[in-house]
Amino acid sequence: MSETENGKAHRTPDPGDIGRRITLQRERLGLTREEAAARAGMAPGYLAYLEEHSADPSAPGIARLAGALGTSVDALRGAGAARPAGRSRAAAHPRLVPLDAEECWSLLSSHGVGRIGLSLADDPVIVPVNYVVEAGRIAYRTAPGTATARAAGHRVAFEVDAVDDAMSRGWSVLVVGRARHVTEPDMVGRLAELTHAEPWAGGVRDFWVLIDPERLSGRRIETD
Question: Between 20 and 30 A from 168 (CA), which of 133, 142, 162, 222?
Answer without folding.
Answer: 133
